[in-house]
Amino acid sequence: ALPEFEMAAEQVAAGFRKGQLGHLPAQPKFFVIRCDAGEEFKKACAAHVHTSFPVIKLFRDGRVVPFQRPRTAPVFAWWATHASRPALMELTQAIHVTSASSASVCFVLKADVSTQREYLEAWQEVAMDFLEDYSFVIVQPHTEAGGLVLPDATPPAVTVMGPDLDPVPYHGGGPDKGALRAWANYNRFPVVAVMSAWTVAELM
Fold this sequence. Notes:
By secondary structure, the chain is of the alpha/beta class. It contains 8 helices and 6 strands. The chain has a 4-stranded mixed beta sheet with strand order 3-5-4-6, with helices on both faces. A two-stranded antiparallel sheet has the order 1-2. Helix 1 packs across helix 3 and helix 5 crosses helix 7. 22% of the residues are buried.
């Protein structure tokens, strides 16, 4: 896996040099810890590797995101940029909301970011929980996107958009991260979902 990992690091660096990854807040950095290289590395290895080698993880925003995909250079490079993207995007145009939800699951918070910061902060945390798999966005009521999403709802309000979804309304009663996460977890699948190894793993 190490040659593929190093190749991915070169691909990501080249993408930044060419200006292809300007949407990322920072360039992902790749590091290798040699657990057999000396005593100074044993503490880090004991905390993150245990007895299974190799282990690939992303560290960001005080969190650890484990890598559980095929260990090839293209997958490493894609995953590094995908998991490094902003966890929460603000959309202002209706066409962008439609595009984001046309082919995949998109969770949307409709709120005034200047007066409802507690909802924004909780939504950001939930977005980090589902970072690898789903898109989380915020729309403000006064924008075109805000007119499209939950037009009759009083902000703050949340919904999920995507193919074959029929979301259950959120009645958490406030900006509670646990309640919002449970709601998102319940609503991320279609009403009828085809079972697969991935689906079973997500439900466990």
